[in-house]
Design brief:
mainly alpha; about 375 residues
C-alpha cells in the first residue's frame, strides 16, 4: 500500500463527498450540531444536579405538604419543586430531540441525494470514452456502499463523537469549579485513556484494512471465475476452482477473526482501565467528602456523572471502532473512487451525430 498515493486519493474523496456538501449546507449542518451539543450537557450534568438536589431534599425531610402553596418562596427547593424542575427539563429536552429529528429528516436525505448524484455523474463521465470496461454490478455496489458509509460516518461523528468530546470538556470544567486538584487528576487519567485508545485503535485499523483487502480480492476472483465459468467447465477445472474459492474464503475468515480479536482486546483494555479509574476517582472524591471539602450534593452529582462516564466511554469505543471499520473500507477502495471523482468536473467531448451516409458491411456471412 502506497501511503502517499492513498492519502492523496482520500483527500480528494473527503473533499468531494463530505466537505463540499458541508460547505453548501452550512446553516442546516451547524443547526444540527448546535442542537445536539446543546442537549447533551442538559441530559448529563444539569439533570444529574437536579437528581442530587432531589436526594438531598429527601434526606432533609423537606417533603411538601398540602399546606404548602405553589407561590411559596421555598417551594422551588422542596422535593416537589425539584421534581417539577426535572419534569420540565425532560419536557424541554424532548422538544430539542424532536427538533434534532426534524433537522435530520431534511439534512440526510439531501446528503444521500448529493452522494448518489455526484457518484453517478462521475461513473457515467468516466465511461464516455471507454465503452468496454463496464462492470455494472460492481459499479452499483460501489455507489451503494459509499453512500451508506459516508452517511453513517457523518451521523456517528455528529451524534456520538462530538457530544462526547463536549461532555469530557464540560465535566472537567465542572470538577475544576468544585476542586481543581481533582480536575487535574481527571484530565491526566483521560489523557492516558485517550493515548491507549489511539494506540490500540491503530492495531484494529490495520486488521480492518486487511479484512477489506481480502474481501475485495475474494469478490474480484469470484467475479472472474463466474464470468469464465464456461471455460472452467469445459476444461474440467471445476473441482480445482472450488478448492481455490475455499482457500480464499478461509483466508477471509482468518482476517475477520483477527479483526474481532483486536476489537475484543481493545474493549477489554478500555473496560478494565475505566473500572480502575472509577475506583480511584471514587476514593479521591469520597476522601474530599469525608474531609468536608465538598458537599453531599456534589458527591451525589459525582456518582451520577461517573457512572454515566463508564457507559459513555464504552459507547464511544464501539462507535469509534465502527467508524474505523467503515473508513478503512473506503480507504481500501480509494483508487476506484478517486478515478470516479476526478471525472465529475471533466467536460465530455462533443460527438457529431451521424445523420447521413451509409454503413457498409463486407465479408459478413449469416
Amino acid at each position: 500500500m502506497n501511503d502517499s498515493k492513498v492519502n492523496k486519493e482520500i483527500t480528494l474523496i473527503n473533499k468531494r463527498l463530505l466537505y463540499d456538501f458541508l460547505e453548501e449546507n452550512k446553516f442546516q449542518v451547524y443547526s444540527y450540531i448546535f442542537l445536539i451539543l446543546f442537549s447533551y450537557p442538559l441530559n448529563s450534568i444539569v439533570i444529574s444536579n437536579f437528581f442530587s438536589e432531589l436526594v438531598e431534599s429527601f434526606d432533609k425531610k423537606q417533603l411538601i405538604t398540602k399546606q404548602v402553596q405553589f407561590y411559596q418562596k421555598n417551594y422551588i427547593n422542596t422535593s416537589k419543586g425539584i421534581l417539577s424542575k426535572i419534569i420540565f427539563l425532560l419536557f424541554f429536552t424532548s422538544i430539542i430531540t424532536q427538533l434534532i429529528h426534524e433537522t435530520e429528516k431534511k439534512l440526510f436525505p439531501k446528503y444521500i441525494f448529493y452522494l448518489n448524484t455526484i457518484l453517478r455523474r462521475g461513473i457515467i463521465q468516466s465511461r464516455m470514452e471507454n465503452f468496454e470496461e463496464i462492470n455494472v454490478g460492481e459499479m452499483i455496489m460501489r455507489i451503494s456502499d459509499v453512500v451508506y458509509d459516508f452517511e453513517s460516518l457523518l451521523k456517528q461523528c455528529v451524534n456520538k463523537v462530538l457530544p462526547f468530546v463536549l461532555k469530557v470538556f464540560v465535566v472537567n470544567v465542572y470538577y475544576a469549579y468544585y476542586n481543581f486538584n481533582f480536575s487535574v487528576l481527571n484530565m491526566v487519567l483521560d489523557a492516558i485513556r485517550i493515548y491507549l485508545f489511539v494506540s490500540f485503535a491503530n492495531l484494529y485499523k490495520d486488521s480492518a484494512y486487511k479484512k477489506y483487502d481480502s474481501f475485495f480480492e475474494n469478490s474480484r476472483k469470484f467475479s472472474s471465475t463466474f464470468e469464465n465459468i464456461f471455460h472452467v467447465v469445459i476444461n474440467n477445472e471445476l473441482e480445482s476452482e472450488m478448492e481455490r474459492q475455499e482457500f480464499l474464503s478461509e483466508n477471509l475468515k482468518e482476517k475477520v477473526r483477527n479483526q474481532m480479536d483486536e476489537k475484543r482486546n481493545f474493549l477489554k483494555l478500555v473496560f478494565i482501565y475505566s473500572l480502575c479509574v472509577f475506583v480511584l476517582k471514587f476514593y479521591f472524591f469520597y476522601d474530599l467528602y469525608k474531609k468536608q471539602k465538598i458537599s453531599k450534593k456534589v458527591f451525589i452529582i459525582f456518582l451520577f456523572l461517573e457512572s454515566g462516564y463508564i457507559n459513555d466511554w464504552k459507547d464511544v469505543c464501539f462507535t469509534y471502532l465502527d467508524m474505523l471499520n467503515t473508513y478503512e473500507g473506503i480507504r481500501n477502495g480509494s483508487s476506484d473512487l478517486y478515478r470516479i471523482l476526478v471525472e465529475v468536473d471533466r467536460k465530455p467531448l462533443d460527438y457529431l451525430p451521424i445523420n447521413n451516409g451509409e454503413i457498409i458491411l463486407e465479408n459478413v456471412e449469416f
